């Protein structure tokens, strides 16, 4: 999830844990602990893009990191707030749960997290919620604003931290139900439309959880389409994108290419923009694919110009958004 959401969730958890004991400092501890796994953003300052793609949400989002960093938070917080009636074990449980919640909810996005680093490079990704979903973030955001404005002993403080955490949990649960519904639908559609595939995934289109991006295919290429929860027909209009592995011959030994293939989990295509060879990671969707079915993919990496690949994960994601595009998104969500 985005950083502001993590901060708001952590603050609500801090208030729940020790708001009455240490006041607003509890919210600060919660926000800091909830944010600490994202310290890996510093790697971008000295790593090249392909290395950073694999490092981001890697070790600092692992269970081992959680186990290592939790005692440090516990040690400093327990001593900072003496005298108090909070045991070392309770501090430890608090920080461990806050940090693990970060690792847990990040796994619901399409980027994936390295829970088992450094022992395994497998990324855990449930693909159930968009990385910046305002319908998830708004509840802890409202709760945080209320908690900041209220006095320390206000009787409504418990209501607001419960509101922020409870509504977020309910919405995430709703997203999981949507995911299961979509997966059930697309499996039936694959059979009806004879979509040949050895792998597939579904992930929400930007900023909501009702329209889903669907990709299915083989090592030869992928079928790409969209499915709304409100679609009445068991049908998806698919566009086919060949993988074009043959285009990679000139750069087959390139180390960056092998890292990109590993990162993409095999969901990639290759194409040429004029004379430029481009690697597409399909997991991050198209720029405005519901509006223009042959639109570029949000993640496209210029293989022959590595220095031109900043912000590669969401390159131009919202660059083409205008009112007709937004209107078409709303219409597509409503179903066909």
Short description:
The protein is α+β, with helices and mostly antiparallel strands and 336 residues long. It has helices at residues 3-22, 25-35, 49-55, 63-80, 88-106, 134-149, 157-193, 255-264, 323-333, and strands at residues 199-204, 211-218, 221-228, 239-242, 268-273, 276-286, 297-302. The protein is globular and about 65 Å long.
Structural commentary:
The chain has 336 residues and is α+β, with helices and mostly antiparallel strands. Helix 2 packs across helix 5 and helix 4 runs antiparallel to helix 5 (88-106). It has helices at 3-22, 25-35, 49-55, 63-80, 88-106, 134-149, 157-193, 255-264, 323-333; strands at 199-204, 211-218, 221-228, 239-242, 268-273, 276-286, 297-302. The protein has 9 helices and 7 strands; from the N terminus they run H-H-H-H-H-H-H-E-E-E-E-H-E-E-E-H. The model has no long low-confidence stretch (mean pLDDT 94). It folds into 2 domains: 3-174, no CATH class; 195-333, no CATH class.
Topology:
Blueprint: H1 3-22, H2 25-35, H3 49-55, H4 63-80, H5 88-106, H6 134-149, H7 157-193, E1 199-204, E2 211-218, E3 221-228, E4 239-242, H8 255-264, E5 268-273, E6 276-286, E7 297-302, H9 323-333
Antiparallel strand pairs: 1-2, 2-3, 3-4, 5-6, 6-7
